[in-house]
User: Fold these one by one.
Assistant:
Number 1:
Amino acid sequence: MTEQIYDCIIIGAGPGGLQAAIYLGRYNRNALLIDRGGGRTQHAKCIENFLTQKAISGKEIIEAGIEQAKSFNVKVEHGLVTKVLKNEFFEVYAGDKQYLSKFVIVSSGVYDNLPSIENLHKFLGTSLFTCVDCDGYKTTNKKLVIIGNSIKTVHLTFAMREMFTKDITLVLYTDKAPEEYKEELADENIPLIIGRPERIIGNEKMEALELQDGRRIECEVIMSHFGYKLNDGFLSDLNFKRDNKGFKYITAHNYESSLSGLYIVGPLNQGNDQAVIAAGEGAVAAIDIKKRLLER
Ligand SMILES: Cc1cc2nc3c(=O)[nH]c(=O)nc-3n(C[C@H](O)[C@H](O)[C@H](O)COP(=O)(O)OP(=O)(O)OC[C@H]3O[C@@H](n4cnc5c(N)ncnc54)[C@H](O)[C@@H]3O)c2cc1C
């Protein structure tokens, strides 16, 4: 029996992977999309910056995208990819199955480093946010608390003040205050608190952030700034070029990684983390793979 060799296996059904799948399906290429479920876009309760969609949830985008990909004969399988190897073909392992393909698109996204705060998940995506480009606008003229653990959080605070709201309290979850910014923060009327957030108070609406030492800071919205990690454990047997911090993957203009035939789209590469950007990158990768399949 001949083993099936896919033209392309796409790992992850976020906007990046789904857009690639739709393009490859519409080229009548033999594409398989593997997704474990969940994912960052599923947490986006109200996306307002996706062209033609005044407001749409991430879940709606994903569900519609899966249906669209299937309608162009893309095979969609539920599974957790645990390993990818490259020999004559790419070997993709999920559960007890092994799949072979000529090309791979990795679109497995990232996950937020979220602090352990009581009630955080109750407000995530509605009044607790993790991304300025996604949700900064939703803090406009609101009482905002920014929580984070680095100097970058201080930089973010000045940016938020410039663009969205003057009513900000900065809570830094660090051992010592950033002395070099104390004066500037005071000049901008931004209280700086060093402390550890414990719980969010509020039923329907957010009311306050309570710290471990019992202090309460009234707020309508929170911006959490603790960075994120990549969903890339399954790539650990392969060698890739990463950025100078050894964090994100370096890709070419077509989103091909330093490993020939393996493309990386979405926030795993050096681009921004946005649904529309991941989708655009998925389209570029799929168009490139279509050309290379024709050359083969
Ligand atoms: C609260 C919140 C609000 C947001 N708001 C916006 C917004 O307003 N506008 C905007 O543009 N973006 C927003 N985003 C960001 C956006 O949702 C995504 O981060 C972005 O679309 C990237 O898409 P992606 O395809 O790269 O990854 P994801 O959407 O993260 O999808 C990756 C997929 O890969 C799957 N996966 C991961 N590992 C594996 C594995 N080993 N095997 C199989 N499958 C795997 C995951 O389950 C998931 O389905 C928001 C994110 C959050 C968390």
Note: The chain has two domains: 5-111+228-295, 114-225.
Number 2:
Amino acid sequence: MSDTITIHPMTMNDYEEAMALWRRTEGMGLRPADAPEHIARFLERNPGLSFVARDGETLVGTVLCGHDGRRGYLHHLAVERAYRRQGIGQALVEEVLEALRAIGINKCHLFVIKENRAAIDFWQHIGWEWRQDIVIMSHYTGALETPSSENRS
Ligand SMILES: CC(C)(COP(=O)(O)OP(=O)(O)OC[C@H]1O[C@@H](n2cnc3c(N)ncnc32)[C@H](O)[C@@H]1OP(=O)(O)O)[C@@H](O)C(=O)NCCC(=O)NCCS
């Protein structure tokens, strides 16, 4: 990874740039839960677990992580296309795992859209296990607008 790349805990000051990156990143499912007030609540509930990578001033990568007291849940790992294959994605994931370790969380899960084969290959390459024994089931509570065309995330 180039010396000009730095990794920082994410704050709401990063939100606009992060959202712009998410919007132009393939495989990133954005939902009403990604609106600023919800990301602000997520960051507040999970301090020090989400990170951004910057090249100088420019945001080039993100990762979000939260935990429920037992397990970590990682979301929105994205690296700007021109910056991929330089170790930034893996460095962001390592920051998350280190931060979880520091608060005693021993395991982290993540969700990948099945068609996102490149991401699955990446996760397996860096040592994550593809769980074939688990199915995710979801239900809306009605607290937020329900995306009409999708039933995911
Ligand atoms: C997945 C993603 C974050 C990887 O970021 P990255 O910065 O390019 O990854 P890194 O450079 O840190 O890669 C770490 C290792 O994984 C390998 N790798 C990266 N992408 C890979 C891929 N698609 N398939 C197989 N291996 C891959 C790298 O070669 C490197 O291996 P090495 O250390 O043996 O050389 C990036 O491709 C991305 O933003 N994709 C679109 C968004 C997305 O799908 N996110 C995941 C949602 S679950």
Note: The pocket of coenzyme A is lined by residues 25-28, 77-79, 84-90, 110, 112, 116, 118-119, 121-122, 125-126 (CB under 6 Å).
